[in-house]
Amino acid sequence: MVYEFGARLLQLRKAKNLTQQALVDRAKALDPDLRLSDSVLGNYESDHTVPRLTEAAALAEVLGVSLDFLTNGENSRTLPLKDLSDSQIQLLMDLTQAFRQRNEATPQTERPDKPTNEQSELISRVIREIWR
């Protein structure tokens, strides 16, 4: 829950071997307008105050976790997409959907030995994108 925010923030910072100042510097590199300093970060870590959304989002990004995890401890797995093209993002979404359909459709033991035509086309798209 949010009341454990400070402990989670401290644990993540230490796991990354970052000082408070180093974490502040990396977060401010993302957004120089953040209201963040090492003393402010110390207040967050000791649960004296909680950050605004913009500060929390920057801290989560630097620490490599989702905002959900940082604030609530819920470990939602996410993929960073910011350096991908629109076609690469669409390809990942299509691939994810294909995995879901396959997992929901048949139990592991009943799966065919070779991919469907749609799956083969998706695999071809992945290969073409990688070798582009």
UniProtKB/TrEMBL annotation:
Residues 100-109 have a biased composition (Polar residues). CDD domains: HTH_XRE. It holds the Pfam family HTH_3. Residues 100-120 are annotated as: Disordered. Residues 9-70 form the HTH cro/C1-type domain. It comes from Candidatus Gemmiger avicola. It comes from the Bacteria. This is Helix-turn-helix domain-containing protein. GO terms for molecular function: DNA binding. InterPro entries: Cro/C1-type_HTH, Lambda_DNA-bd_dom_sf.
